[in-house]
């Protein structure tokens, strides 16, 4: 869960990538 907050900021403008990362993080 360390990359959760970081991914949120990086994917702030990339909803598509955010979904991809969320799938992998699950």
From TrEMBL:
The record's Pfam families line, in alphabetical order, gives: Acetate_kinase (PF00871)
Molecular function (GO) terms for this protein are:
ATP binding; kinase activity; phosphotransferase activity, carboxyl group as acceptor
- InterPro entries given for it? Aliphatic_acid_kin_short-chain (IPR000890), Aliphatic_acid_kinase_CS (IPR023865), ATPase_NBD (IPR043129)
Database matches in PROSITE patterns: ACETATE_KINASE_1
Record keywords, A-Z: ATP-binding, Kinase, Nucleotide-binding, Transferase
| Protein family | Belongs to the acetokinase family.
Q: What is the protein name stated in its UniProt record? A: Acetate kinase
């Amino acid at each position: 869960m360390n990359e959760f907050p970081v991914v949120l900021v990086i994917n702030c403008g990339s909803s598509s990538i955010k979904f991809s990362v969320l799938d992998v993080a699950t």
